């Protein structure tokens, strides 16, 4: 049985009041903010039964209002990068704000992560809803969007839905940064990761997919068997992982698939992720640089955490061979992602 409660958490200047929703089961406690539909914390047990908060974040509302790294937030209207911030849809060219090198990232300068969502209690959790007006961040169509967070036992489920009045690209994900050792852990080098992907997307020097869908065999991106993250990071070109792993192929039918599993052997904590999305962006916090002060005064540095952003493939709006990311009038956008938090004592194997 999950207990659900709500309290006012503060006032965001220029935006309005922000509520904190708490979802509590016997195994896991989740805190959610109406600002950005942010997952503020996830408390889960280790093999010793000790509860730790495994999500990066801030102690106060001001931290989230001024945050530029999308900690815990739902990002949209389009997660990840759009090359040069431009796309053509139904014969019309759209130019978005450029906010990541030469590209548009995570919905624009004021994406869904900076909006106040409307929270409503549902069984086992909270539904957060938002209206994105026609022209919001230069995207076409008014979009009604919702994300429901529900907690059952050790599994947190995020269900995304959207409808639009005009054809528009859409790609929603949650951008939580995890460290299964808990707050204050310096890095994730002692975490073990596996990702259920046969292929990944190589990128250019501005992190836009080249268009190639490359098999992981014989590359540092072959994470089909569990590997220690620290040594693996030394094999990856560039500052770390920030790549889309392909969970399905374009045209595959909608179905929920196992995406990834991360284990922290020292604490025994395990995170498993499944999703209906065709991809997952595995990101190892390459651009956190110690300048951000997070919970308890901890400074979040490079490789201090990881993200598993379940989503469509990056720049799909410009790449015809990628899964379709256009939501048209009368259609329903619907995806689900599940995060399951367990400890090794519940598993037969140690990794």
Give the biggest sheet.
9 strands, antiparallel
- What percentage of amino acids are in beta strands? 35-45%
Global outline:
globular
Mean pLDDT: 96
Number of helices: 2
Helix content: under 10%
Determine the N-to-C terminus distance. Answer: 29 Å
Strand element count: 29
Low-confidence stretches: 346-350
* Strand order of the biggest β-sheet: 11-12-13-14-29-23-22-17-20
User: What is the radius of gyration computed over CA atoms, rounded to a whole number of angstroms?
Assistant: 19 Å
Derived structural class: mainly beta
GO molecular function: aldose 1-epimerase activity; carbohydrate binding
Enzyme class: isomerase
Main location: cytoplasm
Keywords: Carbohydrate metabolism, Cytoplasm, Isomerase, Phosphoprotein
Properties at a glance:
351 residues, mainly beta, five-stranded antiparallel sheet, 2 helices, 40% strand, globular, cytoplasm, Gal_mutarotase_sf_dom, EC 5.1.3.3, phosphoprotein, isomerase
Protein topology:
Elements: E1 3-12, E2 16-24, E3 29-33, E4 39-45, E5 51-53, H1 61-66, E6 74-75, E7 81-82, E8 86-89, E9 92-95, E10 104-105, E11 118-122, E12 125-132, E13 143-152, E14 155-164, E15 168-169, E16 173-174, E17 192-195, E18 199-200, E19 214-215, E20 227-228, H2 229-233, E21 242-246, E22 257-264, E23 269-275, E24 279-283, E25 292-293, E26 299-300, E27 307-311, E28 326-327, E29 333-343
Antiparallel strand pairs: 1-2, 2-3, 3-4, 4-5, 6-16, 7-10, 8-9, 11-12, 12-13, 13-14, 14-29, 15-28, 17-20, 17-22, 18-19, 18-21, 21-24, 22-23, 23-29, 24-27, 25-26
């Amino acid at each position: 049985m999950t207990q659900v409660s709500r309290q006012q958490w503060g006032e965001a200047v220029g935006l309005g009041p922000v509520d904190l929703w708490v979802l509590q089961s016997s195994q896991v406690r989740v805190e959610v903010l109406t600002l950005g539909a942010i997952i503020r914390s996830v408390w889960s047990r280790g093999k010793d039964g000790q509860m730790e908060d495994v999500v990066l974040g801030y102690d106060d509302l001001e931290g989230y209002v001024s945050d530029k790294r999308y900690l815990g937030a739902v990002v949209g209207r389009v997660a990840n990068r759009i090359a040069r911030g431009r796309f053509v849809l139904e014969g019309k060219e759209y130019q978005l704000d450029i906010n990541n090198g030469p590209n548009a990232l995570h919905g624009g300068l004021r994406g869904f992560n900076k909006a106040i969502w409307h929270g409503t209690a549902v069984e086992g959790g909270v539904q957060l809803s938002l209206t994105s007006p026609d022209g919001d961040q230069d995207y076409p169509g008014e979009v009604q969007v919702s994300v429901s967070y529900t907690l059952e036992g050790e599994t947190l489920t995020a269900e995304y839905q959207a409808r639009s009045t005009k054809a528009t690209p859409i790609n929603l994900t949650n951008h939580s940064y995890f460290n299964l050792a808990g707050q204050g852990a310096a890095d994730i080098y002692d975490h073990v990761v596996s990702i259920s992907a046969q292929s990944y997307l190589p990128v250019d020097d501005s992190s836009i997919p080249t268009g190639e869908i490359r098999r992981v065999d014989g590359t540092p991106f072959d994470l089909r068997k569990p590997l220690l993250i620290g040594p693996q990071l030394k094999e990856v070109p560039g500052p770390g992982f920030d790549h889309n792993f392909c969970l399905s192929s374009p045209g595959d039918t909608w179905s929920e698939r196992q995406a990834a599993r991360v284990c922290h052997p020292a604490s025994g904590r395990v995170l498993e992720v499944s999703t209906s999305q065709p991809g997952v962006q595995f990101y190892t916090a390459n651009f956190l640089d110690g300048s951000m002060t997070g919970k308890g005064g901890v400074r979040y540095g490079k490789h201090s955490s990881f993200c598993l952003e379940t989503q469509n493939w990056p720049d799909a709006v410009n790449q015809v061979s990628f899964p379709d990311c256009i939501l048209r009038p009368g259609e329903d956008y619907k995806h689900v992602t599940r995060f399951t938090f367990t400890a090794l004592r519940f598993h037969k194997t140690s990794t």
